[in-house]
Specification:
Structural class: alpha+beta
Strand content: 15-25%
Largest sheet: 6 strands, antiparallel
Helix content: 40-55%
Radius of gyration: 20 Å
Number of helices: 12
Order of helices and strands: HEEEEEEEEEHEHHHHHHHHHH
Length: 305
């Protein structure tokens, strides 16, 4: 089995290497599939993950969620069933052996329907915990991922087979070891499902002043219950979560759009540039302008997969 896994892993790396020849992040012709290539280790990228399933075919990566560093590499996967802001780093990559990965957007509504449809999926392994899961690759799951990536080379088949492969991969994930948090998130009425509602609301309204009572009402939870389960699932409080969303957006505006620190701060929802500068330095270790200049010099403009 290990030999077959290694062979399929090598095939996935070869396919990604063939499809992505230049360093960067790319949207595949297959809906919901993104491909990544990096030639050097990279530190300090930030993005909002999820709901997404990521597979590293070659190299290694780590993400920091709520102060917890989660590492994964070849023949393993990472899944985030809700949106989570995280700092990431490519830990293993070189020009001769680049970091190669793919990420598949998860259809959480389809996951809910699948749990209802198949009793085998709705097992007793549901549990609450940080909504970032890593797991060892199985032959069935890796084979489905490989077929999805290869599908881009047969464009005439994409319209029909992409939907089937998305469904197969979702099924493999829902029935895999360690998928308990995902099942909890998509189960109607669960605490994790209510926190997911709060997360979605925060993402849509992160620029607005946060009233935790309003957020709790939206999630159909008490304030203390929301705080407890929100931190358990995301690794941060609602206020810290909002702060990361604002800082990530401001950093993106400065890096990608060329905005100055004050303009980026106000656009991200800050009312005080002084507060923004203080929180930015605490998050990224440098004042905004200095941090952006160093990132530009290092060529780390793009977010990593």
């Amino acid at each position: 089995m290990e030999r077959k896994l290694a062979e399929l892993g090598a095939e996935l790396a070869e396919t990604l290497n063939r499809q992505v020849r230049v360093e960067g992040d790319y949207a595949s012709e297959v809906p919901g599939l993104h491909l990544f290539r990096r030639h050097t280790p990279m530190v300090g990228a930030c993005q909002v993950y999820g709901p997404v399933f990521t597979v590293v075919a070659q190299g290694a990566k780590a993400i920091d969620v709520g102060g917890e560093l989660i590492a994964f590499g070849e023949l393993s996967w990472l899944m985030t069933p809700i949106h989570i802001p995280a700092m990431s780093r490519i830990t293993k990559a070189s020009p001769k052996r680049p970091y190669l990965a793919c990420a598949i957007t998860l259809d959480m509504q389809a996951a809910r329907e699948m749990i209802v449809e198949f009793d085998a999926v709705a097992c007793d392994d549901m549990k609450s915990g940080l909504a970032v899961t890593t797991g060892a690759m199985t032959l069935e799951l890796l084979d489905a991922v490989l077929r999805m990536v290869r599908l881009a080379e047969s464009p005439q088949d994409i319209a029909i087979l992409a939907k089937l492969l998305h469904r197969e991969i979702l099924y493999r994930l829902l029935t895999s070891a360690g998928s308990g948090v995902m099942r909890e998130v998509v189960t109607a009425g669960s605490q994790s499902q209510r926190v997911a509602r709060a997360v979605d609301w925060l993402r849509a309204n992160f620029r607005e002043p946060l009233r935790v009572e309003q957020l709790a009402t939206h999630a159909h939870m008490g304030v203390s219950t929301l705080h407890h389960h929100f931190r358990q699932l995301t690794g941060s409080s609602p206020l810290q979560f909002q702060k990361q969303l604002r800082l990530f957006e401001a950093r993106r505006l400065m890096l990608v759009d060329g905005a100055d620190a004050a303009s980026a701060a106000y656009a991200a929802g800050y009312e005080s540039v002084t507060q923004f500068n203080r929180e930015y330095r605490r998050q990224f270790g440098q004042p905004p302008r200095k941090n952006v200049i160093e990132l530009q010099r290092a060529g780390e403009l793009a977010l990593s997969g």
